[in-house]
Amino acid sequence: MDLKFSKVTRKGPITIITLSRPEVYNALHIDAHFELNKVFDDFSADPTQWVAIVTGAGDKAFCAGNDLKWQAAGGKRGWDKGGFAGLTSRFDCDKPIIAAVNGVAMGGGFEIALACDLIIASENATFALPEPRVGLAALAGGVHRLPRQIGLKRAMGMILTARHVSAKEGLELGFVNEVVPAGEALAAAERWAETICKNSPMSIRASKQAIQRGLEVSLEQAIAEQREYPAVKAMAASQDYIEGPKAFAEKRPPKWLGR
């Protein structure tokens, strides 16, 4: 696939996806959304790729959100089934996705990060859902994910004021996992990804799916139904399910196959 608005790099089982429109702070328009949807489709379907990292080109922005200048000039607005950046409406990917936020994460940019499983932020990162200031609302998941991740009152405080939040405050609020010096977000995200890859990818997918589906129902129902979740059943039927205990008994590192 000829990529015009993003870059894809693979390091072993880790896919690094870079939003690449630095001239507009990596803001996204319809063509970028459709391109990224295909990129995430490819990552999800590739059995050799276990973890994805999303970051932004340059040192100023992760993603400034929707390209408002494109929209104001009459550019068509919309995205594919995966949602904003091919990610915010993607609910069928059980592989971990990490946001390496290296600067501004505004509006849809923040919504991309919230749709990821982990957020690693540089000290110069800034987060906000400023849509009400331009007559819009954060309907690419922001108004739903933020309350679920940090609690209703704190989310209301951010959304209704449209205020900017630093990486440090994001860590305190609970939506950021780690804050690192400027310029080090991607390296730190790779460190997290490498640590994840030491575990069985089948177990990681089962865990992520069980967490997500379990949060949709009562605790009692989640525990009762979890062994019927597809990723949990796939884990139990996998070669990794045999390899893990065997490697432990033989006192050696496991050789994960991801199947």
Count the beta strands: 10
Question: Which structural class should the secondary elements be placed in?
Answer: alpha/beta
Helix content: 40-55%
- CATH superfamily of the largest domain, by name, is 2-enoyl-CoA Hydratase, Chain A, domain 1
Question: Shape from CA axes?
Answer: globular
Count of folded domains: 2
Q: Give the biggest sheet.
A: 6 strands, mixed
GO biological process, one term: fatty acid beta-oxidation
Protein name: Enoyl-CoA hydratase
Pfam families: ECH_1
Family: Belongs to the enoyl-CoA hydratase/isomerase family.
What does it look like?
The two termini are 27 Å apart. By secondary structure, this protein is of the alpha/beta class. It is globular. Helix content is 41%, strand content 16%. The chain has 11 helices and 10 strands. The model has no long low-confidence stretch (mean pLDDT 96). It folds into 2 domains: 192 residues, 2-enoyl-CoA Hydratase, Chain A, domain 1; 51 residues. 42% of the residues are buried. A 6-stranded mixed beta sheet has the order 1-2-3-5-7-10, sandwiched between helices. A 4-stranded mixed beta sheet has the order 4-6-8-9. One of its GO terms (biological process) is fatty acid beta-oxidation. This is Enoyl-CoA hydratase. Keywords: Lyase.
